């Protein structure tokens, strides 16, 4: 079981999302706790990205309530908010399955543009920013320092002035996470961050996510198919199948849950033992 002594960061209550005749998410309730890496897993089409789209304002859920509990005690009902307010006020940031960097801009510019909101506030939304009013200069310095901090932590300081599109794939993934972190999120939602990474790059990703959890007071909610990443770094795992939550617990609990095994193998619960036995036998035969 998840540790309920922890403080909730995101609470999802009875969330449903219907597309015509398809119930993509069906009465989902779950909690992501502060200081945790929570993974949302499940077979293809289980509804994981739809959940992300509901909580980041891309879809308005058919039913349900999604509450973000900020560190300062404020609470935000995300299903009622526009996407830009979810980032700016509720402090939820996300990345997408497909990399969405500004490829023609430099690595540093990608990190600066993520800090547009505080810079605009500091300029007081006037031309004063251009003429260098003190509050803008201070905010600009802080934005550059934050960008430099993240460049250092993703080992891209040397490539700060290169176009983002010229980076190797694994570095682009890390840059996306750094860009999301530059918005100052309290919850970071990552949609398949390990997709397309080789084992060494996945390893680096794990280290980056563990660093975010430890150093930044940012909870992470992660959709991921790479079970090495999920099982190694998650504190808490929620499993969806056909839009329904079928398991919720620690990596050890979820790994051995027959419902989860059945969902991943695409068989009914009662067939799990037989299939597991078959897999073990096949593996034994394959051994030299
Ligand atoms: N905008 C939409 N309109 C209609 N159906 C949709 C829409 N978005 C998602 N779906 C359907 O909802 C179901 C859940 O899709 P979703 O992308 O959330 O699954 P997923 O678990 O993220 O899958 P994957 O692991 O393959 O990314 C699928 O059957 C999908 O076809």
Automatic annotation (TrEMBL):
The keyword ATP-binding applies. InterPro entries: AAA+_ATPase (IPR003593), ABC_AA/LPS_Transport (IPR051120), ABC_transporter-like_ATP-bd (IPR003439), BCA_ABC_TP_C (IPR032823), P-loop_NTPase (IPR027417). Keywords: Amino-acid transport, ATP-binding, Nucleotide-binding, Transport. Residues 10-267 form the ABC transporter domain. It holds the Pfam family ABC_tran. One of its GO terms (molecular function) is ATP binding. It comes from the Bacteria. Belongs to the ABC transporter superfamily. PANTHER family: CONSERVED COMPONENT OF ABC TRANSPORTER FOR NATURAL AMINO ACIDS-RELATED, HIGH-AFFINITY BRANCHED-CHAIN AMINO ACID TRANSPORT ATP-BINDING PROTEIN LIVG. This is ABC transporter ATP-binding protein. It comes from Hoeflea poritis. The lineage of its organism: Bacteria, Pseudomonadati, Pseudomonadota, Alphaproteobacteria, Hyphomicrobiales.
């Amino acid at each position: 079981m998840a540790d309920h002594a922890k403080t909730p960061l995101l609470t999802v209550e009875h969330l449903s999302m219907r597309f015509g005749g398809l119930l993509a998410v069906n009465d989902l309730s779950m909690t992501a706790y502060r200081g945790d890496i929570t993974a949302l897993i499940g077979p293809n089409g289980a509804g994981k990205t739809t959940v992300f789209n509901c909580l980041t304002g891309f879809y308005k859920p058919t039913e349900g309530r999604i509450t973000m509990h900020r560190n300062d005690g404020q609470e935000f009902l995300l299903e009622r908010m526009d996407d830009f307010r979810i980032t700016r006020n509720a402090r939820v940031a996300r990345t997408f399955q497909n990399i969405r960097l500004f490829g023609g801009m430099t690595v540093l510019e990608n990190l600066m543009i993520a800090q547009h909101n505080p810079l605009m506030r500091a300029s007081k939304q006037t031309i004063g920013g251009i003429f260098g009013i003190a509050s803008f200069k201070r905010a600009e310095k802080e934005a550059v320092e934050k960008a430099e901090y993240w460049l250092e932590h993703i080992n891209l300081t040397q490539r700060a002035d290169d176009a983002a599109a010229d980076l190797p794939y694994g570095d682009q993934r890390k840059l996306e996470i750094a860009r999301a972190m530059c918005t100052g999120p309290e919850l970071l939602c990552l949609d398949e961050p390990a997709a397309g990474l080789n084992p060494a790059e996945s390893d680096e990703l794990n280290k980056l996510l563990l660093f975010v959890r430890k150093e930044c007071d940012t909870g992470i909610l992660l959709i991921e198919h790479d079970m090495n990443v999920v099982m190694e770094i998650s504190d808490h795992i929620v499993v969806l199948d056909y839009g329904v939550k079928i398991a919720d617990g620690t990596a050890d609990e979820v790994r051995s849950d027959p419902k989860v095994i059945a969902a991943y193998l695409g068989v009914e619960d009662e067939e799990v033992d037989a299939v597991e036995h078959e897999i073990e036998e096949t593996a034994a035969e394959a051994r030299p």
